[in-house]
Amino acid sequence: MIKAVNLTKKFKSTLAVNNLNLEINGGEVFGCLGHNGAGKTTAMRLILGLLKPSSGQALVWGKPLSKHPELRQKVGVLLENDGMYDNLTATENLEYYARLFMVDNRQNKIKRALEFAGLTERMNERAGTFSKGMRRKLGLVRAILHDPEILLLDEPSAGLDPEVQKMVRELIMNLAKEQNMLILLNSHDLDEVERICDRIAILQRGEIVACDSLESLQHNSKEPSCEITLSGTQQASAAKSVLSTLEYVTRINVNEKRVTVSLNQDRVSELLYKLVSTGIKVEEVKRISRSLEDIYLEIIHREENRQ
Q1: pLDDT score, position 307
Q2: What percent of the chain has pLDDT over 90?
Q3: Is the pLDDT of residue 221 over 80?
Q4: Residue span of the structural domain in which 14 resides
Q5: Which of 65, 15, 74 minimizes the C-alpha distance to 44?
Q6: What is the rounded distance in angstroms from the CA atom of residue 2 to the CA atom of residue 60?
Q7: Strand order through the sheet with 55-60
Q8: What CATH number does the domain containing 234 carry?
């Protein structure tokens, strides 16, 4: 289990992490979202004991990793730096880490890791010759080589092609489900987070401004959305003109004869009445679940307006 209690980190005049409180349990995939500089990586380094907090605590199994290095054997990590040694081959890199973590049956595990990463044919080439995507794959299998109970990933899919991204997503979900592994990941990839995370925290200026499951974030969203199907594309264009005059409509997206609308108040019936009363031919109206991207932007903009 990971627990942060009033976790704060200040670099001179910059407050990188501000009074962070969270609890993550085994079998959970927990995603952190936020702009560059929001505090995601700093928070992860505090949890790992690589940085000393200015105040508060970061606990893993109830203890700070900085004071209990023996617990690091149970933690896998992939930070922005993939941890690969340029002058060592792919096999030699994995062999080094396998020995460091005292991995049993390491030759078979290294073989399977290289196969999973698609690097068997490049196993005897130096990591310094690899592309960013290849290094990222090697770094990922390195992080799970010792069968950790907790896995911390900073932008795990960065530099990977779509096919490998899908493979990584499936791996993360399987590790959480089948091995009850706790997985904490930082990501800019909203689609990735939406697909695999059980809970999501949105960070801004070092603070958690929202934290919940996607379903709860959608339910609590202050901007309901609906999709309106019109009788034709000309009707959709006319509907957009009408909708743009309504003060409670925040976003309008037209796709042929369908119009998707976001509102800052739950006034869908009023909106429908306005369209029909102006002669717009509406065929269907349905409420839709908002995407994580919509929710993320809503929360970020709302917090910015509070500053």
Answers
A1: 60
A2: 67
A3: no
A4: 2-218
A5: 65
A6: 5
A7: 14-24, 2-11, 55-60
A8: 3.30.70.100
Tally of domains within the chain: 2
Q: Which residues of 53-91 are buried (b: 16+ CB within 10 A; e: fewer)?
A: beebebbbeeebbeeeeebbeebbbbbeebbbeeeebbb
pTM over 0.90: no
**Residue 28's pLDDT is what?**
96
Confidence of residue 201 (pLDDT cuts 50, 70, 90): very high
131 to 41, 97, 103, 136: CA distances (angstroms):
23, 21, 27, 9
Q: 203: burial class by Cβ within 10 Å (0-12, 13-18, 19+)?
A: buried
Looking at the structure, do residues 86 and 70 belong to the same domain, yes or no?
Answer: yes
Cβ count within 10 A of residue 112? 12
Same-domain status, 96 and 136: yes
Which has the closest alpha carbon to 217: 300, 152, 305?
Answer: 300
Q: Does residue 104 sit in the same domain as residue 184?
A: yes
Report residue 83 as tokens.
């941890």
Nearest of 94, 110, 98, 117 to residue 168 by alpha carbon: 117
Do 196 and 67 fall into the same domain? yes
Q: Can you give the pLDDT at residue 53?
A: 96
Q: Band the pLDDT of 225: cuts 50, 70, 90.
A: confident
Instruction: Among 218, 246, 273, give the residue marking a domain's end.
Output: 218
Model pLDDT for residues 53-86, shown as the tens digit of each residue: 999 999 999 999 999 988 999 999 999 888 899 9
pLDDT, averaged across the chain: 91
Question: Could you give the count of Cα atoms lying within 13 Å of 40 in the half-sphere of its Cβ?
Answer: 25
Give the 3-state secondary structure of 258-307.
EEEEEECCCCHHHHHHHHHHCCCCEEEEEEECCCHHHHHHHHHHHHHHHC
Residues 254 and 127 reside in one and the same domain = no
* Sign of the alpha-carbon dihedral angle for 189, 192, 195, 196: negative
Q: In sequence order, what are the residues at sequence separation of 6 or more whose Cβ sits closer than 8 angstroms to the Cβ of residue 306?
A: none
